[in-house]
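# nightly structure sweep
# worker-07 picked up a monomer target from the shared queue
# config: single-sequence mode, recycle default, output format = structure tokens
# input follows
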Amino acid sequence: MLRRRSFRVLAVLIFTLVGGASALAFYDALWRDEPDGWMAAALILAGGAFCYRITSSRVHAGASSLTVVNPLFSYEVPYASIHKIEVSESGSLTVLPKEKIADTEGEEYLVVGFAGSLLDRAFRTSDKAAAELKRHRNRGRRAPGADGPIRRKLVADVVADALLLTAAVCAVLFLALR
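# output follows
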């Protein structure tokens, strides 16, 4: 699995900050009887879920396929279906399939975890990840199952989904108590 180490630290930091900030909003809503506390908690939790999903993006290099896990969708691309793994001028890591696929609404799969940030430019993390993925692709092309179809799935993240569900409950409470 390839993910920037800084993203793991960021995910924990985001979860901690969101937890602390929403605790203050819950305090206002429950003990100070401020209905705006429910809306504040909802906004903080929804923003935290968004940030957590982005920082949870990663790439799995399996025995016969490459799995790109982005914030909403994951793509399992068999190694035989990969035309090229490249880093754009902006520093974004992309996986180009041999055939144009309707699921991508374009030609390539962007790896959000390596999407050309300042860290990518300064430390060349996208280049290092691309080299590692190319090594896996070259070894796995002849593996059993390396020539299957490209699969797209919806990503379920327990932490991000729990934050979003709690945000929805807080928004409903805000509307009900207003």
